[in-house]
Design goal:
The chain is α+β, with helices and mostly antiparallel strands. Helix content is 36%, strand content 13%. The protein has five helices and five strands; from the N terminus they run ααββααββαβ. The radius of gyration is 71 Å and the shape is rod-shaped.
Length: 199
Amino acid sequence: MGAASISNVRLPRRLLPAALAAALHIAAASVVLFVPLGQSGTGDTSPEIAIHLPPAAATRQVLSAARPHLVRPPVVRDVPAPRIEVEAAASTAITTPSPAPSADRTAIRAQGRRDYGGKLWTLIAARKPAGIHLDGEATVLFAVDGNGALIELQLARSSGNARLDTLALDTVRSAAPFPAPPPELESADLRFTIPFAFR
């Protein structure tokens, strides 16, 4: 139908606004989508449809922007627990001081000294000369070693009588050597003083 035919068509008034709107939409679509490309050699004047596509790079950029960003979860690696090396402390020699002599040991030494001193006095008294009566009293100091040998002899206190003092020293000297002392006695335990009197 030509343009003359369309102009001769009369529409009811209530349909005119809708028809005008449809005509405007069709005209706008023809301008955008239908672009005449000219007549070809065959005389074909039908319009060709030309769709303008955005460049590929722009397409990729749009798709990339539209694609949600995927957040990769952090990679958790097994971290070995730290090694705690405990170096063994070098052993230190602990020197324990010798314990102080106990009361039992002290008592044993004291008793041993009394017993050994009594034995020595018995041996010395057996050497005293009989039948001598002298006034005064002398004190003799003497010491023995671990074998009972006499190692020291002196007059600790004089009687005031030279003869009495000499008899006291000679009596101790004549009783030596003495029996060996008991093993629990020390050197300090082997010194003795004996009073001498001749009555």
